[in-house]
Amino acid sequence: MANCVVCGRRAVYIERSSGYAYCERHFLKLFSRRVRKTMRRYELFSEKEDIVIAVSGGKDSLSLLHFMSKLAKRVKGWRIRALLIDEGISGYRDVTKKDFIKFAEEWGIEYRIASFKEEVGLTLDEMVKKGRSIGLPYLPCTYCGVFRRYLLNKVAREMGATVLATAHNLDDVIQTYVMNVIVNNLDKLSRLGPKTGVVRHPKFVPKVKPFYEVLEKEVALYAVLNGIYPSFIECPYARLGVRWTIREMLNKLEERHPGIKYFTLRSLLRMISTIRGAEGAEGGPLTCKICGEPSAHEVCRACQLKIELGLIKP
Ligand code: SF4
Ligand code: ZN
Q: Ligand 1 pocket test: which of 61, 95, 124, 141 has the largest number of ligand atoms within 8 Å of its C-beta?
């Protein structure tokens, strides 16, 4: 491994797009500077915030919780709490939930856990089984994404959050970008900005992504260097989704053409500003006529899925 470009010590990381190498200390400095720059550039937080962090118990969300808890010691007006959505994926979420609880207790972080079973009526495993038995065309990630987004907003609001922070990193964001372009979901692109909630709906909690400009592997290294070792475990449904293939494709592209992920992010940001310019604002300021939550349509996606699953009547 090369030597650190700043101090000459043994490097732990080489940034392939620039060719610069960094030792442990200077990598952590670089990481922190980059995340704080994202926060400033996109005005993710103000001085007084009740921040709820969406966690899964994996390395990304525990790293965000670690990063934000440390930063909050210097920002008097911040309160940090965590929210875990338990989808009910056996052999997976039960394991990561334990990792999260252990971390939160060690760090003295207040948290809340909300489950699909209690809030929606079925675990994700049960939904997938039922959906298959009645011939619904959805992949597990569809139910998961819709109900998780729904519950994160609803429960964070109930907790009194002024902002909900998620651990989406640059890789996550550009994967979703490519997926949405492929399936012609251009109207969903504005959700992929570093800060969403341009449309003010009284029940909508603004969402921010502090890790927006750092790579997945950089977050992984941040976790290791800070002694954050959650169980290395993969969701049993992950490989069924389109995201998996796109992830592999983007990793191969980056391998051959270092820096291409950053270019893709810039392309996304430009696309978002073009769409916002054309529409005036991001869509979705309606109220679901069934559940009263914010929605892009008369009936929100979560209620539509509940109807299809036979959990509620239309
Ligand atoms: Fe949910 Fe799909 Fe992620 Fe598994 S891989 S946690 S089903 S979104
Ligand atoms: Zn609804």
A: 141
Same domain, 10 and 66: no
Q: Domain span at residue 1?
A: 1-41
Q: List, for residues 34-65, the tens digit of each pLDDT value.
A: 999 999 999 999 999 999 999 998 999 999 99
Ligand with the closest atom to the CA of 127: 1
What is the SS3 string spanning the chain? CCECCCCCCECCEECCCCCCEECHHHHHHHHHHHHHHHHHHCCCCCCCEEEEEEECCCHHHHHHHHHHHHHHCCCCCEEEEEEEEECCCCCCHHHHHHHHHHHHHHHCCEEEEEEHHHHCCCCHHHHHHHHHHCCCCCCHHHHHHHHHHHHHHHHHHHCCCCEEECCCCHHHHHHHHHHHHHCCCHHHHHHHCCEECCCCCCCCCCEECCCCCCCHHHHHHHHHHCCCCCCCCCCCCHHHCHHHHHHHHHHHHHHHCCCHHHHHHHHHHHHHHHHHHHHCCCCCCEECCCCCCEECCCCCHHHHHHHHCCCCCC
Q: 49 and 35, same structural domain?
A: no
Assess whether 1 and 140 both reside in one domain.
Answer: no
Which residues have CB under 6 Å of ligand 1?
A: 140-141, 144-145, 235, 237-238, 241
Task: State whether 131 and 199 are in the same domain.
Answer: yes
- Domain shared by 124 and 179, yes or no: yes
pLDDT in tens, 188-213: 888 899 998 756 788 999 999 999 99
Distance 114 CA to ligand 2 centre (A): 17
User: What residues are neighbours of ligand 2 (ion), with CB under 5 Å?
Assistant: 288, 290-291, 300, 303
